[in-house]
Design a protein that fits this description.
- This protein has 426 residues and is of the alpha/beta class.
- It has two domains: 5-59 and 320-425, Aspartate Aminotransferase, domain 1, CATH 3.90.1150; 74-318, Aspartate Aminotransferase, domain 2 (3-Layer(aba) Sandwich), CATH 3.40.640.
- The chain is built from 13 helices and 15 strands.
- The chain has helices at 5-15, 49-52, 61-71, 85-97, 112-127, 144-149, 181-194, 220-233, 284-287, 303-318, 321-342, 371-383, 408-425, and strands at 28-32, 35-38, 43-46, 104-109, 131-135, 167-170, 201-206, 236-240, 264-267, 278-283, 346-352, 355-360, 386-387, 389-391, 397-400.
- Strands 4-10-9-8-7-5-6 form a seven-stranded mixed beta sheet, with helices on both faces. The chain has a four-stranded mixed beta sheet with strand order 1-2-3-13.
- Helix 6 links the parallel strand 5 and strand 6 (167-170).
- The longest helix is centred in the last third of the chain and has 22 residues, at 321-342.
- The mean pLDDT is 97.
- InterPro entries: 4NH2But_aminotransferase_bac, Aminotrans_3, Aminotrans_3_PPA_site, Class-III_PLP-dep_AT, PyrdxlP-dep_Trfase, PyrdxlP-dep_Trfase_major, PyrdxlP-dep_Trfase_small.
- It is an enzyme of class 2 (transferase).
- One of its GO terms (molecular function) is 4-aminobutyrate:2-oxoglutarate transaminase activity.
- Keywords: Aminotransferase, Pyridoxal phosphate, Transferase.
- Pfam families: Aminotran_3.
């Protein structure tokens, strides 16, 4: 007897803890590029991309071929026991890709949370300090340290008690929510006055474009100020590019558009093209601050994932995916702005490159976030064959993370579904 989504959901509820959320009550069976087919044979357009993991699409043939070839060589030795060339080659290529005209080194791990944890470890070891400044609306992971850095309690750390100390929260600039660059800068200065001296702060960590926070783009002016502040006080600037990395914003890393460079950069998600890999790249002298044995992990930089990531880098060059990203971004933005023009509850269309979102409110003054409408659009879109994600501090943002390899016709069908949902619900 073939499985159904409902029968599998019943098994899931019995076997999997409720803390593992699931946005859509669907079980995927197979996928190709920007389309997913569930266990009942229904096809969906994928505007979620595994939460920004599939910029190169589902099962890109070049990635499949690279992983298959590696599979016949070796799958695991633990790099710290017996090394292998794909790890080193990937580090070399990431060093060349990450912005910054200085010597760099790269550490490979498995998840974005691991990458952020290790970036903080490196900053603390390099500076001899312990404090970290993060921002409102930030999302950096689900491990204990990264939960402390993440600026959203529910659902991520609700009921778990206080997170690790030594973390301080500054305001992320967002014009729509009334937080100017001046106010954001002043909030950091308030930390220095009220909470911790600059000499106690090891790092400031920031997403150039916030992911879970709602696709808020850091103004270039603010990033310039942040860089100057870090230089003034000897603080390590960490750019969390886990979601923005691998070409989502129109450059391989979003910091290429920010006018300044970070000291450490974290990456994950689409770098692996669907395989679990992450890492930290940064100034060589900072990366070398920790003695042998202080960095690594049993599965860190797995050979199959390294092979996939190397294929991703080749795909970006061969298929000119950064140029394709700009094309997708233009179509997405124009399509969503056309919907906004007819539906005033859409307060803003924003983002960088093809990392695009819309924020919904109940009122013209933008004082009442439309969380219920947002959830309704996600559900209605699913009924029509489109997978969407919501996000934002108030659960009122719809974000689009469609593969950059999406065909124009599929992209247009997805936008038409979004439009139909607003026509029916607004």
């Amino acid at each position: 007897m073939s499985q159904t989504n409902e029968s599998l959901m019943q098994r899931r509820v019995a076997a999997v803890p409720r803390g593992v959320g699931q946005i859509h009550p669907i079980f995927a069976d197979h996928a190709s590029n920007s389309r997913v087919v569930d266990v009942e044979g229904r096809e969906f357009i994928d505007f979620a991309g595994g939460i920004a993991v599939l910029n190169t699409g589902h099962l890109h043939p070049k990635i499949v071929k690279a992983v298959e070839a590696q599979l016949h060589k070796l799958t695991h030795t633990c790099f710290q026991v017996l090394a292998y060339e794909p790890y080193v080659e990937l580090c070399e290529k990431i060093n060349a890709r990450v912005p910054g005209d200085f010597a760099k080194k790269t550490l490979l791990v498995t998840t974005g949370s691991e990458a952020v944890e290790n970036a903080v470890k490196i900053a603390r070891a390099a500076t001899g300090r312990a404090g970290v400044i993060a921002f409102t609306g930030a999302y950096h992971g689900r491990t204990m340290m990264t939960l402390g850095l993440t600026g959203k309690v529910a659902p991520y750390s609700a009921g778990m008690g206080l997170m690790p100390g030594g973390i301080f929260r500054a305001l992320y600039p967002c014009a729509l929510h009334g937080i100017s660059v001046d106010e954001s800068t002043a909030s950091i200065e308030r930390i220095f006055k009220n909470d911790a001296e600059p000499r106690d702060i090891a790092a400031i960590i920031i997403e150039p474009v916030q992911g879970e926070g709602g696709f808020n783009v850091a103004p270039k002016e603010f990033m310039v100020r942040l860089r100057a502040l870090c230089d003034q006080h000897g603080i390590v600037l960490i750019a969390d590019e886990v979601q923005t990395g691998a070409g989502r914003t129109g450059t391989f890393f979003a910091m290429e558009q920010m006018g300044v460079v970070a000291d450490l950069t974290t990456f994950a998600k689409s770098v692996g093209g669907g395989f679990p890999i992450a890492g930290v790249c940064g100034r060589a002298e900072l990366m070398d601050a920790i003695a042998p044995g202080g960095l690594g992990g049993t599965y860190a930089g797995n050979p199959l994932s390294c092979a996939a990531a190397l294929a991703v880098l080749e795909i970006f060059e061969e298929e000119r995916l950064l140029e394709r990203c700009r094309h997708v971004a233009a179509k997405l933005t124009a399509g969503l702005e056309a919907i906004q023009a007819r539906h005033p509850r859409i307060a803003e269309v924003r983002g960088l490159g093809a990392m695009v979102a819309i924020e919904l409110f109940e009122d013209a003054e933008h004082t009442r976030p439309a969380a219920e409408l947002t959830a309704q659009v996600v559900a209605r879109a699913r009924d029509k064959g489109l997978i969407l994600l919501s996000c934002g501090t108030y659960y009122n943002v719809l974000r689009v993370l469609v593969p950059l390899t999406v065909e124009d016709e599929v992209l247009e069908r997805g936008l038409a579904i979004i439009e139909a949902c607003f026509d029916e619900l607004s």
